[in-house]
Amino acid sequence: MNNIPLNERIIFALDFSDPEKAKEWVEKLDGRIKFFKVGLQLFLAGWWPVIDHIVERGNKVMIDLKFFDIPETVSLAVQQLKNRKVTFATIHGNDPIIKAAVQHKNGVKILAVTVLTSFDEADMKDMGFTGTVEDLVLMRSRKAIELGCDGVVSSVWEAGKLRSDIQKNYVIVTPGIRPGANVDIIQNDDQKRIATAKDAFRNGADYVVIGRPISTSPDPLATVTDIQREIQEALMEQAAQG
């Protein structure tokens, strides 16, 4: 994944309830960032016109709806992405759900969400899991790749093991990114397994998903520049290590 342009390495999370506000952010970041995430909130608010607006400006889209339903419904839902110029779509389910999703992906790269970054070890125990978060992420990732997914979504802290565990041409997308010194000070943060962009790329991520650290910054474009500098430094370190 060394050939990914720097302005596509950050997937900006358009976590807004107002489609017009989302479009304004696409235009504000245009050129500096060329990859945008549309999640459940914005998709329900703006539907396909928001996605059309993004791709018509020459940008890429990750549609993060985490498809989870009976296999037939998931299959039919994924088929709705055909000809929409969506680059990534996320799923979150068991083997039959994954099989149903990849069967009709029609050029869309399907990413399996392993364990939400809002979960930590305590949550795992509450749900009855006896292993670690890392154990579950690795197990689910191996199975997802085996069943035909193009990559996975995981936190920074599992990315290193994933990169050494799965083939290099599979995509790793990492959410829960906080820039530099601000890694621990975002207010009302529901993410628990967080880290910096530099950490993510040192650990083998291909893309990072970032929203609030940019959208709440007093100078969003300067923040983007700082994060991209972190990414470039990490990529250069990786290249130097061979």
> What number is the mean pLDDT?
84
Count of strand segments: 8
Classification by helices and strands: alpha/beta
Low-confidence stretches at least 5 residues in length (pLDDT < 50)?
Answer: 181-193
Distance between the termini: 14 Å
**Any idea how many domains?**
1
CATH architecture level-2 label: Alpha-Beta Barrel
Helix content: 40-55%
Physical arrangement of strands within the biggest beta sheet: 1-2-3-4-5-6-7-8
Instruction: Provide the CATH top-level class.
Output: Alpha Beta
Q: Radius of gyration in whole Å, from Cα?
A: 17 Å
Tell me about this structure.
The protein is of the alpha/beta class and 242 residues long. It has one domain (6-240): Alpha-Beta Barrel (TIM Barrel). The chain has helices at residues 6-9, 19-29, 40-56, 71-79, 95-103, 121-126, 133-146, 156-165, 197-202, 212-215, 220-240; strands at 10-13, 35-39, 60-67, 88-91, 109-113, 151-153, 171-174, 207-210. Strands 1-2-3-4-5-6-7-8 form an 8-stranded parallel barrel, surrounded by 5 helices. The protein is globular. The two termini are 14 Å apart.
